[in-house]
Amino acid sequence: MFGLALKSLRHRAGGFVASFLAMFLGATMVMAFGSMFDTASGDVPAASRETLVTMASVVGGWGLLLVVFAVVSTLTLSVRQRAGEMALLKSVGATPAQIGRLIVGETALLALAAGALAIVPAVLGGAALLEMLKSSGQVDESVGFSFGAISVPMGLGITFVASTVAALITVRRATRVRVTEAVADAAAGSSKMSKKRIVGAVLFTLLGLDLAVVTATVMRGSGSDAMSTAGQACIYASIGMALLGPVMIRLVVRLVAVPLELFGGAAGHLAVSNLRQRTGQLASALTPIVLFTAIGTGTLYMQSTENAAMAAAGLAKTADQKGIETLNFVVIGMIVLFTAIMLINTLVAATTYRRREFGQQRLAGATPKQVLGMVAVEGAVLTGTGVVLGTFASLFTILPYASNRLDSATPDGTPLIYAGVVVLAAALTMVTVYGAARRAIRTRAVEAVAA
């Protein structure tokens, strides 16, 4: 089966790019922060060891959660795009177990390759992180960088296990549906939400709510230590909101369908039709927008609120508080980079796959301008939906932390913070979708349909 999986990877290399990059970036991130464990295991001062372990545990833990979700999202998109292939395999006698082993085998090989290639950039990233901690005075200058004993097994193991588990989760529906249903999915993409997805959405949202309540009550009076619960609240909530993607897209389409069809012309009509039929596929592209908006907004306003609380108390920042601030900005930088690449990856994969669809539309009479207009409208709907969901999820961090530190219902911070996050999310989405669509329609319509 691994031999067949290897042949499949060679034949469809382009179809695995998004999943491979998610694994590669995830392994790089986990190993880079994991190297702080390696460094802390040497002969280092107690204060420096505590900082290194905290950095590795907190950021590495959040990174792991994001990586698992990213791999599930990209694999889900990949398997949806292969619905026709799955149907063909079933029609010639392949069993669900054989198809499942094929996909899991492909994913396992990808994970091993991604983990191995991530070692060099992880070394560079870990060394840069240690230098940053030294320059900010959080780690003693005498501490030497160490990499390997803990970080490599940790990165390879986590990437492999997370990816294969994600593959097992993803292939369940693909291997259980009948051939006729698989063909229908290949043509239009299912919009139904599974019971497990609904349960997951409720569970993660409740976890976020629980941490929000703990931040506002149990952690009151604990100072900046409340960040440990407040920061995680919007992460869990954003995952819950992202899992509700298909439902939210359908709801938004109902609200905007009439004005789009009335005033959007042919592009608006095509966009509404595609949004209704392909909510499952579009939901995968929605995920990174939600994560980016929620975690970026929540963490930045949380740090701004902490700065205001310190100023109101007339206190100067201690070394520990500077460390917390640095940690928060490292998290933001990590999330911005990871989710931005994940966003670009997912949207490029989803849009490029639609080359045949674009060709059919052009043969049916749509002009290239109308096709691009349709894609732009879809991107705007995705952006708006993702920003709204992400903004709601960020409140799970912002409001409880403001109540805890400022005894206020509103956080401290300029509206420009939120505006910056939203503008960046919109720019990444629209530029990526439009650019990928322009490349996709360069292929002649007849050739695209025949491919």
TrEMBL record:
Pfam families found in the cross-reference section: FtsX (PF02687)
Residue ranges of domain ABC3 transporter permease C-terminal in the record: 62-174, 330-443
UniProt topology in membrane: Multi-pass membrane protein
Stretches that traverse the bilayer: 12-33, 53-77, 108-130, 150-171, 198-218, 282-302, 329-350, 371-396, 416-437
Compartments reported by the entry: Cell membrane
GO molecular function: transmembrane transporter activity
Keyword presence, DNA-binding: no
GO CC, alphabetical: plasma membrane
Keyword Transmembrane: yes
Keyword annotations from UniProtKB, A to Z: Cell membrane, Membrane, Transmembrane, Transmembrane helix
Domain of life according to the entry: Bacteria
Family that this chain belongs to: Belongs to the ABC-4 integral membrane protein family.
Stated name of the protein: FtsX-like permease family protein
Organism: Actinomadura barringtoniae
Source species taxonomy: Bacteria, Bacillati, Actinomycetota, Actinomycetes, Streptosporangiales
